[in-house]
Amino acid sequence: MFSSDKLDENDISLAVLALQLSVSNGQVFVLTNDQQLLSFMSWLRTKKEIRGIWGDPQLVEGIHCLTYLENVHRHCTIATDEMLKMLQYALLAHYSRETLVNTNKGKNILNSLFTVQSNFTKSIQIKTARGAT
């Protein structure tokens, strides 16, 4: 179950903008590293009653920004060393954050970073086997 009381005005505005853009542009992706916003975007996609009011929630998807960048890296648009720097920065930033008591937010963020790191490692192996950089 999603609780909207943890979203700020900017998050809600971004979700509304994404819905509005879906009316004229089709598929819209919201790139973020905020786990609460990602959860909200997933929850929003289940709300069919929004379709007639603000746009089609099925056309709006939240994606962890590093997951997106890892996919871009996989297609040779971002150099491996640049992707590594971004991933290292995200991990260090996460570790320097204050722990939120009684939440799983930190654990969820860390798990998503580990998933990106694992995919990044696999991507490097595939690119190395193909002779790409």
Order of helix and strand elements from N to C terminus: HEHEHHH
Largest sheet: 2 strands, parallel
N- to C-terminal separation?
43 Å
User: How are the strands of the biggest sheet laid out side by side?
Assistant: 1-2
**Roughly what is the average pLDDT, rounded to an integer?**
77
**Low-pLDDT segments:** none
- Bin the strand percentage: 5-15%
Number of helices: 5
Number of strands: 2
How many domains comprise the coordinates? 2
Secondary-structure class = mainly alpha
Query: Helix proportion of residues, in percent?
Result: 55-70%
In angstroms, what is the radius of gyration? 17 Å
Task: Describe the global form.
Answer: flat
